[in-house]
From TrEMBL:
Organism: Desulfoglaeba alkanexedens ALDC
Protein name (database record): TRASH domain-containing protein
InterPro entries xref list: TRASH_dom
Domain TRASH: 44-81
Amino acid sequence: MIRLLFYILVFYVIYRLVKSRMRRWISGSEEREIQGTEAELTRDPQCGTYFLKRRGVSAVVRGETIYFCSERCRDAYLAAQTSSEGDTRK
């Protein structure tokens, strides 16, 4: 019985060591991925949410590229821009 408990303890220690090394290895690869790409935060002009620019949805408005957190915010912003342009033309 003591031998079984000893094996369980050894297995647990090895498991924890492997798990911590894998976590460091995975987080290190994510850091390299972020360093290699644009990791800039930007703010959605429609809802005000901050998000990673590289994960955003873009649209060109009056020659300027604007980034949105989702397609829904982009579409709402473009609809509001279209309706405001129609109001100024009246």
